[in-house]
């Protein structure tokens, strides 16, 4: 499993984690205005994210308004839409009118998501608006516009008003900011029309209002006065969800002034006595930087929403309670901030959550029993951790993970080891930053380093990593000197087999990545005899061009290993069918072998290709493959959109060894461990269970032919030692998962969301003798990585299948240990 597992990685979180500050930017000369400023009817708001991922509203809409003093008839008018390219127009006819100062709502296409309907529209169309870029025109007439550029449209006198947003070709002045699935573009309350869309429109939470003044989910009742703890309530869902509230008081504790999810956090300095209710609340202002300062005492009103990162009805994630469409007044400034909640090792419970077999949202919060409940009761409050040890290194998204429970399953290097489904490390907390990087660069840390002193800021749930502390104060970095590991060199009588996921390696990658991977093989892995590789891409990498050959990728890799001081390896692999093995689209990742011909021989047997299954035969008392290399049952449904195992027949000092390279299907689609459904559904396990069954069947076939066969099963199984898939492989003792031979604090090869875990495995049959196994930690715990996986290596003496020969061989190996590597072998 690689970073592609989370390919949905977030426009929102990238912006949040980047710590960027919006600054002035030069704008090219804008095109001429398309319509003279309207004295009455104008386009007031445009929203195209209805029903999309993360949207609350189910429909797109266009809202008109009358900035004049007399009613305006819209009979015979239309609202028209053009995509960002401006190459065509779609029409929605209008009827009726709009009173002075009133609104007129035009409903457009309905999406599959969203849970909140628009108020009764004044007109209805079916146009699917873009959520990010396009043009809306208010037109006198119902004949579709034909202009395709700003200049052409400027000559069309039928256009009464127009707004281009995002990257729109047709716009007045400069285009308005790009909206999103959760934000519209709207004029301010003054409905100014300066013929510059960028100046007139800002992005924010959608606020559809019809001609009767109705808004979603209501018919115009007055807002209800509420305190923050009343809004947050004692479950995950606010009792005021989708209702208007007023009189919400609090002190501004932090501001997010960048990205598309801007806003500020407030905390009520007069809390109630219920530990289940948070006193913090996020006030969402869209892409508009809020005009408040930390320490301001505000009184706010708005609509309470539960924000999900995708469709609320089906989202596996938890929500964030926030105040949207907000208005506020500042009563005073420079107020002292409420004291943060100090999190100690004893604060967070060891149990993640109750397990109702579904959503935990309706359940009363129990912060003293469950870790997810503890963090939820402090949602949007300022929390503080001190001298926090890093358990997940700094990522490219400028985020890291610390533990608030340093004694909870510590790894040998200071990480947090994930040892079973019910032994999740509940002390893990993600840290991002609200501080501009120009002021305080985000720390570059490795696992085991420490953020000394205080790290504090508001806590908010994120679908990427769970509860996250957005730091307004960052502790200083203490480097604990983590070093990349190296393994010992194999002795003359030992065969060494390594496995390494090289993370989408293609011929297009630069010399730096090839060099780092090559150095690891030549030095850290001590030149293994056989190298089992995962995620080798075709020669053109992610280009989806039909190329499947990987000879250039492998040649570049082999040359880099030689340059790093390693042997000149040979390779064996089978090109997959185009687009059939999953992974990055166009990349055609596959497994393959490198081997050192000076130490081991590969037995080439013709017939292996992408679709032909390899079999096992016995001739003249000797077991061998029908094709080498060959793919294991490649047409089986278990391997759909996934890598097929590759088996190779090797000979080392006269002894045959079967090595099977694997890369099982990814964990994509599994529900998060920190999500609203508990226990989480691990849907991807179903396919891996099938894959393990097929693979085990092949291993059993080899052992049925030769019970003393030397078999090594290696690769990225994308699953844990305690998973059903791995248990299928080890059932009955035919194969041993060697990770179990290590101490618990060394059982990991990958770090995900601060949890050090096992995804890569080497399993061996009973025949190999003198087994010596090592996970070489050189990537997963470091901010600077050549791959996101740590390699593993197995050293052993292959069995000859003859007790006398094995005894002589064992004696010779023992003497080599005592007398040195130059003792001659029999």
Description:
- This protein has ten helices and 44 strands.
- The protein is mainly beta.
Return the structural class: mainly beta
Tell me, rounded to a whole number, the average pLDDT: 92
Shape: elongated
Instruction: Tell me how many strands there are.
Output: 44
Please tally the helical runs, counting DSSP H or I stretches of 4 or more residues.
10
Radius of gyration: 31 Å
Our measurement of the CA-to-CA distance between the termini, rounded to an integer number of angstroms, reads: 42 Å
Strand content: 25-35%
Unreliable stretches (pLDDT < 50, length at least 5) are 1-33
Residue share in helices?
Answer: 10-25%
Instruction: Characterize the main sheet.
Output: 7 strands, mixed
Keywords:
826 residues, mainly beta, seven-stranded mixed beta sheet, six-stranded mixed beta sheet, elongated, disordered N terminus
Furnish the topology, listing elements before pairings:
Elements: H1 11-18, E1 41-47, E2 59-66, E3 72-73, E4 77-83, E5 90-93, E6 97-98, E7 103-110, E8 123-124, E9 134-140, H2 150-154, E10 159-165, E11 184-187, H3 197-200, E12 201-204, E13 224-225, H4 228-232, E14 244-256, E15 262-267, E16 280-286, E17 297-307, E18 320-332, E19 341-342, E20 358-359, H5 371-376, E21 382-392, E22 400-403, E23 428-433, E24 450-462, E25 466-471, E26 476-478, E27 495-505, H6 511-524, E28 530-536, H7 551-563, E29 570-573, E30 590-595, E31 601-602, E32 616-619, E33 622-625, E34 630-631, E35 646-652, E36 655-663, E37 677-678, H8 685-705, E38 710-716, H9 724-730, E39 736-737, E40 750-752, E41 755-757, E42 760-764, E43 769-775, E44 792-797, H10 803-819
Parallel strand pairs: 7-8, 13-14, 16-18, 19-21, 23-25, 27-28, 36-38
Antiparallel strand pairs: 1-2, 1-11, 2-7, 3-6, 4-5, 4-9, 9-10, 11-12, 14-15, 14-17, 15-16, 17-18, 20-37, 21-22, 21-24, 22-23, 24-25, 24-26, 27-44, 28-30, 29-30, 31-35, 32-33, 34-35, 35-36, 38-42, 39-42, 40-41, 43-44
């Amino acid at each position: 499993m690689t970073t592609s597992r989370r390919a949905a990685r977030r426009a929102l979180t990238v912006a949040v984690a980047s710590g960027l500050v919006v600054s002035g930017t030069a704008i090219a000369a804008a095109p001429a205005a398309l319509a003279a400023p309207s004295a009455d009817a104008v386009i007031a708001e445009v929203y195209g994210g209805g029903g999309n991922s993360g949207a609350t509203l189910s429909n797109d809409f266009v809202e008109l308004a009358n900035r004049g003093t007399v009613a305006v008839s819209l009979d015979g008018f239309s609202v028209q839409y053009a995509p960002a390219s401006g190459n065509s127009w779609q029409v929605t006819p209008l009827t009726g009118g709009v009173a002075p100062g009133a609104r007129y709502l035009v409903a457009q296409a309905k999406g599959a998501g969203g849970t909140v309907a628009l108020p009764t529209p004044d007109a209805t169309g079916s146009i699917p608006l873009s959520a990010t870029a396009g043009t809306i025109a208010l037109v006198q007439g119902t004949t579709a516009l034909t202009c395709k550029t700003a200049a052409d449209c400027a000559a069309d006198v039928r256009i009464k008003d127009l707004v281009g947003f995002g990257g729109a070709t047709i716009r007045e002045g400069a285009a308005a900011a790009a909206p999103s699935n959760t934000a519209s573009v709207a004029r301010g309350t003054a409905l100014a029309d300066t013929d510059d869309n960028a100046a007139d429109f800002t992005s924010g939470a959608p606020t559809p209002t019809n001609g009767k003044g109705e808004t979603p989910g209501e018919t115009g009742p007055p807002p209800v006065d509420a305190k923050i703890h009343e809004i947050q309530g004692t479950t995950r869902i606010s009792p005021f969800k989708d209702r208007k509230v007023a009189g919400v008081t609090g002190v501004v504790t932090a501001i997010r002034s960048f990205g598309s999810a801007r806003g500020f956090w407030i905390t009520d300095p007069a809390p109630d006595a219920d530990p289940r209710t948070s006193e913090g609340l996020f006030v969402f202002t869209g892409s508009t930087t809020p005009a408040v300062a930390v320490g301001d005492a505000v009184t706010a009103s708005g609509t309470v929403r539960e924000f999900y990162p995708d469709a609320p009805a089906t989202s596996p994630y938890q929500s964030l309670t926030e105040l949207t469409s907000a208005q506020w007044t500042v009563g005073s400034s420079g107020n002292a901030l409420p004291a943060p909640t100090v999190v100690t090792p004893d604060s967070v419970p060891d149990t993640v959550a109750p397990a109702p077999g579904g959503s935990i949202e309706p359940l009363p919060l129990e912060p003293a029993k469950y870790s997810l409940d503890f963090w939820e009761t402090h949602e949007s409050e300022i929390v503080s951790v001190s001298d926090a040890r890093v358990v997940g290194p700094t990522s490219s998204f400028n985020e890291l993970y610390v533990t608030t429970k340093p004694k909870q399953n510590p790894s040998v290097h200071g990480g947090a080891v994930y040892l079973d489904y019910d032994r999740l490390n509940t002390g893990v907390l993600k840290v991002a930053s609200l501080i501009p990087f120009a002021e305080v660069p985000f720390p570059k840390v490795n696992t085991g380093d420490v953020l000394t002193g205080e790290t504090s800021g508001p806590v908010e749930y994120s679908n990427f990593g769970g509860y996250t502390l957005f730091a307004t104060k960052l502790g200083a970095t203490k480097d604990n000197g983590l070093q990349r590991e190296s393994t010992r060199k194999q002795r003359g009588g030992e065969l060494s087999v390594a496995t390494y996921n090289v993370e989408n390696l293609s011929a297009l990658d630069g010399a730096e990545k090839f060099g780092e991977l090559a150095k690891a093989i030549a030095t850290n892995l001590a030149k293994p005899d056989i190298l089992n590789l995962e995620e080798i891409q075709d020669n053109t990498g992610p280009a989806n061009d039909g190329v499947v050959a990987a000879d250039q990728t492998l040649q570049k890799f082999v040359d880099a290993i030689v340059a790093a001081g390693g042997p000149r390896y040979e390779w064996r692999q089978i090109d997959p069918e185009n687009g059939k093995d999953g992974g990055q689209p166009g990349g055609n990742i596959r497994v393959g072998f490198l081997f050192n011909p000076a130490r081991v021989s590969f037995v080439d047997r013709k017939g292996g290709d992408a679709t032909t299954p390899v079999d096992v035969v016995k001739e003249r008392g000797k077991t061998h493959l029908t094709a080498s290399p060959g793919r294991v049952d490649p047409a089986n449904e278990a391997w759909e959109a996934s890598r097929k195992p590759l088996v190779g027949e090797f000979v080392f000092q006269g002894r045959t060894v079967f090595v099977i390279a694997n890369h099982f299907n990814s964990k994509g689609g599994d529900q998060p461990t920190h999500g609203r459904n508990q226990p989480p559904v691990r849907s991807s396990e179903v396919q891996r269970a099938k894959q393990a069954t097929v693979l085990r069947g092949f291993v059993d076939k080899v052992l049925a032919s030769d019970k003393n066969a030397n078999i090594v099963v290696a690769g990225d199984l994308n699953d844990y030692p305690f998973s059903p898939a791995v248990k299928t492989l080890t059932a009955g003792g035919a194969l041993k998962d060697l990770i179990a031979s290590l101490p618990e604090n060394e059982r990991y090869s990958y770090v995900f969301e601060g949890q050090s875990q096992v995804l890569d495995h080497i399993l061996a049959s009973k025949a190999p003798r003198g087994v010596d196994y090592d996970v070489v930690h050189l990537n997963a715990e470091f901010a600077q990585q050549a791959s996101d996986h740590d390699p593993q290596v197995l050293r052993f003496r292959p069995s000859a299948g003859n007790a006398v020969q094995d005894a002589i061989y064992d004696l010779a190996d023992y003497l080599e240990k005592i007398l040195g590597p130059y003792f001659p072998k029999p």
